[in-house]
Amino acid sequence: MRNESQKDRPLVIVDPYPRDIATIFRPETMSVLSSHVHLVFSQALHMSDQELERYLPEAVAIIGQTSLPKERLDLAVNLKAVFNVEGNFYQNIDYEECFRRSIRVLNCGKVYARPVAEMALAMALDLSRGLTWNHMKFIKGEESYDLSANKDSRLLSGASVGIIGFGLLGTSLRELLYPFRCQVSVYDPWLPVSVIEEHQCRSCTLDEVLSKNEFIFIMAGVTKENQGFLSRREFDLIQDQANLILMSRAAVVDFEEFTRQLGTGRFKGATDVFPSEPFEKEHPIRSLSNVILSPHRAGGIPQAFFEIGEMVKDDLMSILSGVVPVRMQSAQPEIVTRLVSKPIKE
């Protein structure tokens, strides 16, 4: 039960798994929120169904990836907004019902764009200069001080670069590439040519991006239409000695074919994402000597997590004041139901 002072403030449900409150909200941010709204949350990983449904009729907002089918939305008669603090628009919400009721579904994905872009750039530089592989040789006492250690090295500066997917991740990467004076081509069928050209890039077909570039960055989100769209035919187009960096979602590639092609040694690769996570221990990609593997850690850094809390605070205050929220991404009817990312399971 809420006491009288709590009833004076709008009720907000906090159910942020796989995030936790301390990870995304600085103490001062929580203090500001608590002075304006009554936050209710569970001590468990998830708020129980019983507890959630008890609070739903009063809630004006939900912070988390809570499942919201129509039956639950029918209970949430005062709901104004859902703040997804994981980074994906999951298909566990009845979006059409939310649109019909003018319930905003907001996403924090943009906070990861710069961290992921920086990691992509780091991986490209690592691939091009052999940093990781030479480090491993060094700690084994097998390093070489002659120029043979550089026989496969190349400059990123002035290189031809292709970007597949030019949303938040792709455009953030483009900003980081300007000092390298790269010739950048982009494939993104969802964007008009003018948008791509505004970023001083050339709009190209997928085949052109794959076949004509020394560095190729896969930054496309996964939808119902593009799962596994990069497979054998597409990988066969990649030029010898190219560098392929997979940063968005593993589901956009045929991962077994990706592994097989890397195994030929024809080009080098790096990936921060995998078909299942944690990834299987015996998968053959782990034994390849021309690939850099990272356990999905590109975006989730402390600065990004705390920025999520600031975005939630700002947009929640805007919504409660009757102002349009501007910090987070809003779910768009034309896009959101085409996405296929799945919530993390316990």
What does this structure look like?
This protein is α/β, with parallel strands linked by helices. It folds into two domains: 4-108 and 302-336, Rossmann fold (3-Layer(aba) Sandwich), CATH 3.40.50.720; 113-293, Rossmann fold. It has helices spanning 4-7, 21-24, 27-36, 49-55, 70-75, 95-100, 113-129, 131-139, 168-177, 193-198, 206-211, 232-236, 255-263, 302-320, 333-336; strands spanning 11-15, 38-41, 59-64, 81-84, 104-107, 160-164, 183-187, 202-203, 215-218, 243-246, 268-271, 291-293, 329-330. The strands form two sheets. It has a seven-stranded parallel sheet. A six-stranded mixed sheet has the order 2-1-3-4-5-13. Helix 7 (113-129) crosses helix 9 (168-177). The longest helix is centred in the last third of the chain and has 19 residues, at 302-320. It is elongated, with a radius of gyration of 23 Å.
What keywords describe this structure?
346 residues; alpha/beta; Rossmann fold; 2 domains; seven-stranded parallel β-sheet; six-stranded mixed β-sheet; 15 helices; 35% helix; elongated
**What count of structural domains?**
2
Mean of all residue-level pLDDT scores? 94
Largest sheet, strands/sense/barrel: 7 strands, parallel
Radius of gyration: 23 Å
> CATH first level of the largest domain: which class?
Alpha Beta
Please identify the structural class as seen in this structure.
alpha/beta
The share of residues in extended strands comes to 15-25%
- Unreliable spans are none
CATH architecture name of the largest domain? 3-Layer(aba) Sandwich
CATH topology of the largest domain: Rossmann fold
